[in-house]
Amino acid sequence: MKLTTTVIGLCLTQLSSCQIAPSKGHYDVPGLGTNKQALLDTGGTTQDMAIAMVETEDLNADYPLGDGKTEDAAAFGIFKQNWYTLRNASQEFAGQSASDYQNGAALNENLAKDIKALHDSQDSLGFDTWAAAQRNGADGIENTNTQDIQNYKATVEWIKGQIESDVKYQTDDTRFWVEVKSI
């Protein structure tokens, strides 16, 4: 089973101009199709599915609280949105402080809240700024055009394209992956 690993050089938008092509591909994860269907049934999109595939292997949020991080760096739900983004762009957590980060755990248990928080954040910030915040929190918002952020957006777009290339990929056990630098 191939798990997403760390790699520094990632370039997807124009593979012909890249010096190093990223490792990417697909494999089956038993039960993933059920979780994909649940995401779609709960108002998620293929872009949401792609984001979740970048962040989790099986579209579950069964990882340690905050993904082992605290305060604004803590991540929650199947999209692993960081607490900074959640408290600044999601209606559910608006106005909360960095020290309230444990409240984000509600997203690990409730897919509808998780999807709503993602959509709130993206609606509030726009996708490009959301992606920057997703990767680097406040620093990402201050500098939205780093190579890492561009790589992340290209990764989401590539996975989304694979999911949309055949309707079966929206509900089967196929997981698409690209090696992305861990943050």
Automatic annotation (TrEMBL):
Keywords tagged on the record: Signal
Name this polypeptide is given: Uncharacterized protein
Lineage: Eukaryota, Fungi, Dikarya, Ascomycota, Pezizomycotina
Signal peptide: 1-18
Organism: Aspergillus sydowii CBS 593.65
InterPro entries, per database record: Glyco_hydro_134
Source superkingdom: Eukaryota
Annotated CDD domains: mannanase_GH134
Pfam family, one: Glyco_hydro_134
